[in-house]
Amino acid sequence: MELNPHLFTPTHPCPLKPKRKPLPLKLRCLSNTRKLVGFVDYDKGERQVSVHVPGFNKSKRIRTRVQSDRFQKDWAVSELVAKILKLSQHEDIVGLLNRWVGRFVRKNYPILIGEISQTGSLEHSNQVFKWMKNQKNYCANNDIYNMMIRLHARHNQTDQARGLFFEMQKWRCKPDAETYNALISAHGRAGQWRWATNIMEDMLRAAVPPTRSTYNNLIHACGSSGNWKEALKVSKKMTENGVGPDLVTHNIVLSAFKTGSQYLKALSYFELMKGTKIRPDTTTLNIVIHCLVKLGQFEKAIDIFHSMRKKRAQCDPDIVTFTSIIHLYSVSGQIENCKAVFDTMIAEGFKPNIISYNALLGAYASRGMNEDAFLVFNDIKKNGLRPDVVSYTSLINAYGKSQQPQKAMEVFSKMKKNKLKPNLVTYNALIDAFGSNGFLPEAANLLHEMETNGVQPNIVTFSTLLACSGRYGQKFKTDSILAAAESRGISLNTVAYNSAIGSYMNIGECDKALALYKSMREKNVKPDSVTFNVLISGCSRMSKYTEALEFFDEMVDLNIAISNEVYSSAISVYSKQNFHLGPTFGSRIFVLENEDDTCTRRQEKWENAFALFQKMEMKGVQPDLIACSALMRAFNRGNQPAKVLVVAEFMQDRKIPMNDTIYFEMLFACSILQDWRKTIELIGLMEPSFNTMSIGLLNQLLHSTFYKIVATGAEINKSTYSVLLKNLLAAQNWRKYLEVMEWMEDSGVEPSVDMYQSILAVAQSSGREYSVIIQDRVERLRRKNMPVR
């Protein structure tokens, strides 16, 4: 997926704008006694509107009653609310309210509770409400109770909200649609969708007709709890009852699908939504982008993002959109684009929030780019934001992946010092940081520490420990980790079983691995492609080829999608079956396990491997390096060296990189074919990689292939000799070095000045005795190559 160069270019210039002062806002009301005042701050995107109501208006009776009392104050409602908020809940709020002359006007009470509930202060609102109910002029009404129920809903206090619902009926206030809506919303926020459904049924029994908001609140209650099926039922019922869905309804249903991980259903619903007259908004497209990212359809998500930026009048991208695109590039591994999107977001006038910073920080952390992650972490603090638990966890993850567990521990300590409580994800990241770098005792200690601090480990914790113990061959650790999980009542899932089976396979405990797989099937835990890849490759390493192929057949029978790694492992099994390397270094001797095996059996093995390779291609699975090297090995062992070179051409066409194993198989194939011209070409191809090649491959090249070329009398150029001399020099084999230089002279190829200087440099560090011998032989070679005058 190529990046559009115009994708991150601002669509319009964004000059720096001077800060504007908050504009005063005055609205005229029909009543002479009320005045709406407030302000709008365009730079910060803030607004505030409040009602100014005088305490006693123009009532002569009230004025006469309070004008002689110097302690009575005629505060406006907004002034009174400001004074209440300045007091703590333990101070004399009741005394302040008793000094307010507005308490004698009954109409002031709904305004007062509306103003103070708008601030979101639950404690102050409760005290004011309690005081109101003790006043002689107070008269309960639906508006007051609806506002209080909504306030408790904002604070997820469903029991108190439900208590207010019953209390209002005792005060002879009949709940209306707004009351039920507020109560359904309260239970929806708390994830109690069954309660919300029951309230809806009570509403119908009370003959209160549900509004569109009622249905939307109930759909949201079901969807936010992950119960997308129930949300869909409510939306259908809504249409059947003649209440048409609006854009909010569609967005809530889409969000329900997203929460329930039903991404394909969300996209299908979006397509149906296009057929209606309702236009999607930014929220709609943000949900669609999220679903496309989860499904790996990155290009479609980018196209939607690009169209949003073009059609700003319809759906202007917001900070959520940009954050989703940053996450997209993080998941797809295009980390450099994450920063480009982040910078574009700032250029278009958006101020990044903590979620945006965490998305960029997490992108760097996923690749172990600890320095870039640390810079983003510092930017969070520089821009006036406080790093949260997610920020610290991402930084811990960055240091863990960059093999710096001690740095990760420093971040963890700093996090606790800043009074942030580590959560389960934080501890899992720190355990992985130590465990993946071989510090298993420290990882195990962290398990005990998290339990001491009241954080219970989950299956991810034990999966991480199992993977780390297998990677470093800790047999007893694997047993103890499994026992610890069992003692805590944690049932292993597919990922945990895969880690445990792989752990046993890595330490050669095949029987325990197979027993664990049997237990996995008995407990109805479904294996996946990773499970079978671990089993097939593990059995193959221990020469249990029959068992490996049985697992492959079982995987096919279970209709599990065969991954690239499984194909490669199965091809490798076919290439190894019934053969092993002979004892002669630099050559292969094929040894059959049974004396009755014939060439037909050999042919069968490479044909099976090739058939599997072809099936891999037909299924659209891209062959990798392991699959190609295994197929080459099968061809060489099946006496099909020409096909090895065909596979090499296939790798070049598909731009699959080559390694030592591939070069080894190609050299062996050329040796069987006695195609020395091709061998010399191959040596030239390999030359740039000589510095990183293994000694075994170089020895194969020197002691087997090169000497055979020389023995056949094939023409060898100067560059080929240069390759051989470099590697003899690296092996400190100066005798062979001088011998090859003599071969060059005999074949009419003159050694270069660098060749002479290299061997003379070796002479200086080889001791006096060998130094004299080397210098003498070099001098004789030079004299022989000097032109005759």
Share of residues in strands:
under 5%
Question: What is the tally of helical segments?
Answer: 40
The best one-word shape is elongated
Most strands sheet: 3 strands, antiparallel
Q: Write down the overall mean pLDDT.
A: 80
Number of strands: 3
Poorly predicted parts? 1-20, 23-32, 55-64, 578-600
Radius of gyration: 38 Å
Q: How do the strands line up in the largest sheet? A: 1-2-3
Q: Assign the structural class, choosing from mainly alpha, mainly beta, alpha/beta, alpha+beta, or little secondary structure.
A: mainly alpha
Distance between the termini: 67 Å
Question: What's the helical proportion of residues?
Answer: 55-70%
How do the helices and strands line up, and which of them pair or pack?
Layout: E1 23-28, E2 35-41, E3 46-52, H1 60-66, H2 77-86, H3 93-98, H4 108-118, H5 122-132, H6 142-154, H7 158-170, H8 177-189, H9 193-205, H10 212-224, H11 228-240, H12 247-259, H13 263-274, H14 282-294, H15 298-310, H16 319-331, H17 335-347, H18 354-366, H19 370-382, H20 389-401, H21 405-417, H22 424-435, H23 440-452, H24 459-471, H25 475-487, H26 494-506, H27 510-522, H28 529-541, H29 545-557, H30 564-576, H31 599-618, H32 625-637, H33 641-653, H34 660-673, H35 676-686, H36 695-712, H37 718-730, H38 734-746, H39 753-764, H40 767-785
Antiparallel strand pairs: 1-2, 2-3
Helix pairs in contact: 4-5, 4-6, 6-7, 6-8, 7-8, 8-9, 8-10, 9-10, 10-11, 10-12, 11-12, 12-13, 12-14, 13-14, 14-15, 14-16, 15-16, 16-17, 16-18, 17-18, 18-19, 18-20, 19-20, 20-21, 20-22, 21-22, 22-23, 22-24, 23-24, 24-25, 24-26, 26-27, 26-28, 28-29, 28-30, 29-30, 30-31, 30-32, 31-32, 32-33, ...
